[in-house]
Amino acid sequence: MLPEQSAGIPAALNRAIQQTLAKGRLAVTRPAGCPGIALYLFDPDVLQGPLSHDEAQAVVAEPAYWSFCWASGQVLARWILANPESVRGKRVLDFGSGSGIVAVAAALAGAGEAIACDLDETALMAARANAELNGVTVTLCNDWSDRGTGIDVITAADVLYDRDNRPFLQIFRQAAPVILLADSRVRNLEEPGYQQQEAHEARTWPDLNEFEEFNLVRLYRGEGVARINRR
Questions:
Q1: Residue 182 in contact with residue 101, Cβ under 8 Å?
Q2: What's the pTM value of the predicted model, to 2 decimals?
Q3: Where do the domains of the chain lie, and which CATH numbers do they carry?
Q4: Which of helix, strand or coil describes residue 41?
Q5: What is the pLDDT of residues 17-58, one digit of tens each?
Q6: H helices present in the chain, as ranges
Q7: Distance CA 166, CA 170 (A)
């Protein structure tokens, strides 16, 4: 148990996880891929034996994505903390923020504003709680169309598992001059305007024992259309 756990887990988040898994609970943990950030995440110690059929169906029907820290989010958050100049003083929007780790990293690195954008209201609740846990503040946005103007950097981690999200890669280029993308699901992105920068090994936390191929995270940098046109 980490020292932060003495502060207590937000009751609303515990209730939310229990809607998916009756015996579920959260714990404060530091993901192995980004130990510089503490998060309220699913506590695997509550699982004593396999899930029942009903529990497994509930998890599949309403997965609490925000209660796990996916590999790509850890890698991108760690990269931002190691390269604070990439976001310092800038308005940063994290698309599909989940637990909020990337938005929290941006805030810790000195972003002028860090925005957690997610359709899931509980995920936004988690992002706010995780920001408070780390002593920073994030702005919440539940609809991409309500993001406002003046976004300097868009970040997105592990959003390409859903093929319907692929068109957003070009939409991002219209909305901001810089895009930082992390993904472990697509081997060869081959997307106009994006260049692979690095690749790192990481695992979802708590570990879901995913296929090894999903533990290699590729980092990409995208350039906005307006920036290219100014050259």
A1: no
A2: 0.89
A3: 3-67 (no CATH), 72-202+212-229 (3.40.50.150)
A4: strand
A5: 888 777 788 999 999 999 999 999 988 887 666 556 666 566
A6: 11-20, 53-61, 71-82, 101-108, 121-133, 168-175, 225-229
A7: 8
